[in-house]
C-alpha cells in the first residue's frame, strides 16, 4: 500500500504483453562478461544523459531483500552514494540465497563497474527481479539484463549505447583506445541479444543510435518482460534536488575532460568551488548554489574557444 492508501499493482509481464498484442519470450539469463586485467580508461555516461534523468523518481513501496540503484554506477568522486560492486556484493551476501529485487533509476556511469555488478548478480542463487523506475541508462541497462524478470515503469526508459569514454592523448593513443573498446561493444550486443532474443545487427544499430526505449518498446524488443502500473513510483523531490546539484558538477567535469586529463579537471573544479567535499550536495548548507556554477561555465567556455 502507498502512503495515500492506494494499492500498487504490478502488471504481469505476459498479461501486459498480451493486452498490447506483444510476444513474450522465455529466456535464460545470459553469460558472464569478462573484464580486462587492467582498465586504463573510464567508460561513462555522456553528459547529455543527465538531462534525461529525473533522480526524484523512487519506488512507491519496497519489500525485503531490495537493492536500490538510484544514483550513478561506480565510485563517484563527487558523491558518497554511488552504486558499487562492493555495496552490491555486501547486500547480496547478507540476503543469502533468498530472491532479490533490484530497483533502478540511474543515468549509468562506469561501464566496467556495471559489468562487474551484472556478473555478480548472475552468481546469486536466488531469483533476481529487476524493476526500472525512471531510467536505466548505459551501465545501468547492462545491470538490468541480469534480471530473470524485468519490469519497467509505464513512463520509464531503458537506454543503450556504445561505450563512451573520457580519454586524452594523440592519434595513436585514440587508435589504441578504440581497439580496446570494440570487444566491449560486441560483448554488450551479445548480452542484450541473449536476454532479448533480438537480432544482433539490429541491437548494434540501436546502440550506434543511442536509443531510448519507452516501456512498450522495451517489452516489444525483449528488454523488459512487463510494465508496472503508473502508481508504482513516487517523487522524492528532496533526493532529486540533491542529485541534480551533483549532476551539475559531474557534467562540468566531463566537459572539461574533453580538454584535459580527468585529475586536472577535478583539481580545477575544486579550486573554483573550494574543495571537492564542498561540491558534494550533502556536505554543506550552500551546496548546489548556482553562482559558482555560472562562473565555472564561463571558464569552460573560455577553455573550449
TrEMBL record:
<dbReference type="InterPro" id="IPR001907">
    <property type="entry name" value="ClpP"/>
</dbReference>
<keyword id="KW-0645">Protease</keyword>
<dbReference type="Pfam" id="PF00574">
    <property type="entry name" value="CLP_protease"/>
</dbReference>
<dbReference type="GO" id="GO:0008233">
    <property type="term" value="F:peptidase activity"/>
</dbReference>
<dbReference type="GO" id="GO:0006508">
    <property type="term" value="P:proteolysis"/>
</dbReference>
<keyword id="KW-0720">Serine protease</keyword>
<keyword id="KW-0963">Cytoplasm</keyword>
<keyword id="KW-0378">Hydrolase</keyword>
<protein>
    <recommendedName>
        <fullName>ATP-dependent Clp protease proteolytic subunit</fullName>
    </recommendedName>
</protein>
<comment type="similarity">
    <text>Belongs to the peptidase S14 family.</text>
</comment>
<dbReference type="InterPro" id="IPR023562">
    <property type="entry name" value="ClpP/TepA"/>
</dbReference>
<dbReference type="InterPro" id="IPR029045">
    <property type="entry name" value="ClpP/crotonase-like_dom_sf"/>
</dbReference>
